[in-house]
Design a protein that fits this description.
Helix content is 36%, strand content 17%. The chain is built from 8 helices and 10 strands. It has an 8-stranded parallel barrel, surrounded by 6 helices. Strand 1, helix 1 (13-21) and strand 2 (26-29) form a beta-alpha-beta unit.
Length: 250
Amino acid sequence: MNKPLIEACVDSHASCVAATRGGADRLELCAHLAIGGTTPSPVVFKQVQRDCDVKINVLIRPRFGDFLYTDIEMEEMCEEIKTFRELGANGVVIGALTPDGDLDVEKMKRMMECAGGIDVTLHRAFDMTRDPYAALETAIELGCTTILTSGQASDVVAGKDILKEVYAKAAGRIDIMAGCGVKKWNIQEIHDHTGIRVFHTTGRKGVLDSGMVYRKSTVSMGLPSLSEYEIWQTDEQEFRECAQIVHAFA
């Protein structure tokens, strides 16, 4: 537990290849990171599995928004967990909450049973709980292997005090992985303040410009705040620099 590790948060084959070349120890494969991530396609998983010699954990999230799931959404997530387990995923990344902001133990148990013993990361639903220390104990009791957290803040720097407390209270019983806003210039700061040695980052340097020459400025296919002509992608060198810092931790 808590050995130096850097996980790439990636939502395309190109990003997976860049992160792997840059030294990723593990991938969290998602779709649609612009809205916080959703479950990726099994086809993309198989492409990445074929071309990237690294462990792959798969985000299981049916939609944008809260973590209060209906029975139909639970059915969908459980079937997806089984699918990716059978395809050979190293683990799944899950979370479910009650209306009162606690981990939904019954739904978590159901999903973990579907995981069948592969690794389980509790995702940033943890950051939306009303009591992170109670959620920590629940996650450990459930058998989760990792908690991904920003310290219940907008990013890891803002949440570093809670990250420090959560890491201390975990006491080696579960990996605490710092994620959200992790950059090469703040990894050392977070490590020094908290002791955390497991990090999660996209490794993006910026956005790539679309290859489109003709551009329709009057139409938006998604969120109006997002450009149709910007591509989010992991930068190999940026990720490598992050990985070198993490891998140097004793």
